[in-house]
Design goal:
Layout lengths: L44 H7 L18 E3 H6 L4 E3 H4 L3 E3 L9 E4 L1 E2 L1 H9 L3 E4 L7 H4 L14
Parallel strand pairs: 1-3, 2-4, 3-5, 4-6
Length: 153
């Protein structure tokens, strides 16, 4: 198909925009106000607060304490055997959800009142593991010794 007005050259001499509209347009991320979330604490802040309110900050806190794994007595009764050491099984606490149908002896670090009552009512017994007590020297910072203490090496 013939073209009525053919362009003589494709060098775009004298044309500042070169097909991108206003001459400011074809500049990269600057024409968008920054790439990605750049400027989201400045000129794009109203967008962030209206469209993505949960983008910054956090809710609540994260505990650094390690929680012991727990098991309910209903799950414990399903296991084979009559004597259980929960520490060896990888559990730290025994909770009272479920029914106890047989006499079971349990050794655990922590047992809830409800679990203890249910096990004893069924004719079983509950034994608590004694926590390892730290000595005063273990509680101190590593490497620090009082001047009156003698080294025993």
């Amino acid at each position: 198909m013939p073209v009525k007005f053919k362009q003589k050259t494709r060098k775009w001499r004298g044309r500042t925009s070169r097909g991108w509209g206003m001459k400011k347009k074809h500049r990269g991320g600057g024409s968008q106000g920054g790439r990605g979330l750049g400027g989201s604490h400045k000129h794009k802040f109203s967008y962030v607060t209206s469209k993505e309110p949960d983008r910054y900050g956090y809710k609540g806190f994260y505990s650094k304490k390690k929680r012991a794994k727990s098991i309910n007595i209903g799950e414990l009764v399903k296991m084979d055997g009559d004597a259980f050491d929960l520490r060896k099984l990888g559990f730290g606490r025994l909770l009272g959800n479920g029914k106890v149908t047989r006499a079971v002896s349990v050794k655990a670090d922590h047992v809830s009142k409800q679990a203890k009552e249910k096990i004893e009512k069924a004719g079983g017994k509950v034994e608590l593991n004694k926590a390892k007590e730290k000595t005063k020297t273990e509680n101190r910072k590593r490497g620090y010794k009082k001047p009156d203490e003698k080294e025993t090496d």
